[in-house]
Design a protein that fits this description.
about 180 residues; mainly alpha; two-stranded antiparallel ribbon; 5 helices
Length: about 180
């Protein structure tokens, strides 16, 4: 199978897609964008309902609170894959400009492995929360006014952390491969 050519985008190379992971993270990113749109509509309905009819949209606060967290975890893996996660390139750029590529690539591998560990720990800690939220029927809101189950949010946090961990591992593997091949 022929390797897809890597392109330059924003000063950094964008790796070739991963057969199963790329479509999943792209779908998660799309769902996150739709969540933003839905939250925008909910907040606008709430604001105009308060202003015009003196009647707020019940549950807007709870849904937007959960929605913001969901959007972060739905989109983080896509940001990692596209190398758009916030980071400082000062040291790595300096090493690259000075021609010290082995050290620079080794630090990038370390960064990616630490990122994978962080998200693996988040997923590990989140797994029992998903089970508890599902089995015990946890909810957010006020009984009798508005309640929403928390298990979908807990599941999104778990899946987002797993996907981000896998993306960091893919990047670490590719940097390691490039370092071994001396192409970098």
């Amino acid at each position: 199978m022929k390797k897809a050519p890597e392109t330059r985008l924003g000063g950094d190379d964008v790796p070739e897609p991963v057969t199963l992971l790329t479509p999943i993270t792209s779908l998660m990113n799309t769902v996150g964008a739709v969540f933003v749109l839905v939250m925008m509509v909910l907040v606008n309905i709430d604001v105009f309902g308060r202003w015009l009819l003196n009647t707020p949209l019940v549950g807007t606060l709870e849904l937007t609170e959960m929605g913001v967290v969901a959007v972060v975890y739905l989109t983080v893996a896509h940001a990692v894959a596209g190398k758009r996660l916030t980071r400082s390139e000062a040291l790595l750029g300096y090493l690259e400009r000075r021609g010290i590529r082995r050290v620079e690539m080794s630090l990038r591998i370390a960064f990616n492995l630490v990122g994978a560990v962080v998200f693996a720990l988040i997923a590990f800690g989140q797994a029992p929360r998903v089970v508890d939220a599902w089995t015990r029927g946890y909810f957010k809101g006020n009984v009798g006014i508005f309640t929403a189950p928390t298990w979908p949010l807990e599941a999104i946090l778990f899946l987002g952390a797993v996907a981000a961990c896998l993306q960091f591992l893919v990047l670490a593997f590719r940097r390691g491969r490039d370092l071994r091949q001396g192409a970098g």
